[in-house]
What we know:
Elements: E1 11-20, E2 26-33, E3 55-65, E4 70-79
Antiparallel strand pairs: 1-2, 1-3, 3-4
Amino acid sequence: NDVFYLFGKGVDQVEAFRIFDRWGNIVYERRGLSINDASQGWDGRVKDGSYAQPGVYVWTAQVRFLDDDIRIAGGDITLVR
Length: 81
């Protein structure tokens, strides 16, 4: 996959989507995203526009559902070039 993005059902919007490197630095952050939209995902670039180093990254997402319930989701992703 060339882009890592969030998908699902019953979601109003993703209030915050962050990706961290192994030292806890934010390498990617977006707010107010739509769900199921690859154009709003992470393409493996860091904040300065350069490509991130291969490795394991941690992601978190603050998600608002249609019933106004807010939950935090997260996991890890391995970036391979």
